[in-house]
Model the fold of this input.
Amino acid sequence: MAERPKLVLAMRPDIVDLVLPAPVRARLDALADVHPVVVTDPAGPGAAEALAGARLLLTGWGCPVLDAETLDRAPLLAAAIHAAGSVRAHATPEVWARGIAVSSAADANAAPVVEYTMATVWLASHRALNTAAQYVAGRQPEFDTRQGADGATIGVIGASRIGRGVISRLLGAAAGFRVLLADPYVSAAEAEALGVTLVDLDDLCRRSDIVTVHAPDLPETHHLLNTERLALLRDGAAVINSARGRLIDTEALTRECGTGRIDAYLDVTEPEPLPDGHPLLLMRNVLVTPHIAGCQGTEVRRLGGYAVDEVERWAKGEPLLGAVRVEDLARIA
Done:
């Protein structure tokens, strides 16, 4: 029997049992020789000895930055497998320069975000926040011709992994949603294959009943929805953001929502969290949730399961399904 590769966990110790509950950890232990030291600081106690023999890193939230100094401590490292979504916070180009394979469980993390977004689309299409506010105030909610999902136009910003999942679910819904897409990297032929209408961002804002944001946080996407574009939204429209807070100008959104003209469903904000007493936290037409769209609680085991599957694929010499390329770094969330 081949010797099991030496593997080091590089994540916050408090999440190890969440990411790797007993059945998942048993699978990992059967595949690899897992070092007892969990590394969060490459210079911390026991880290040097753990990293020196590591062939695999199984990373997670709290992983140290894998820069040249850290990688020098792990000369045998062949793969870094991330039991979470984005690797942007810890994987540097130096990882790929040294021929180290990188994988992410972003596919596993995407599913809950897609479902969260779809749940929010249904709430937004029924103007649930507005109706609830009337109900709380003791008024019978008024019939609103702007309410209802059937035939609603949904504008998707960004054909990311999550954006494409949302598109697929929207097109499969019984409501007959019309789906617009704004993404400068998608061709007309690709949009046709996705089943969406490709438009520029201004046109998407003008035509959509609901706008849902799924673009990465890049310099060119900072405040993608700014004062001018938010003003293009029709009365009664809704904005959903489960991507990154910096994509929307918070001050501009606060002004628009403050008039009651549009609704907002925000799982991410800028800043995050919003300060106590921020107007967006107090508005009845705004729902702010604390970055919970991705894997939470019992769902986190999906990330560990995906990562252990990747360890098994690596051990068998098979391609990594969650492989991340160095050129992806500039465009991932």
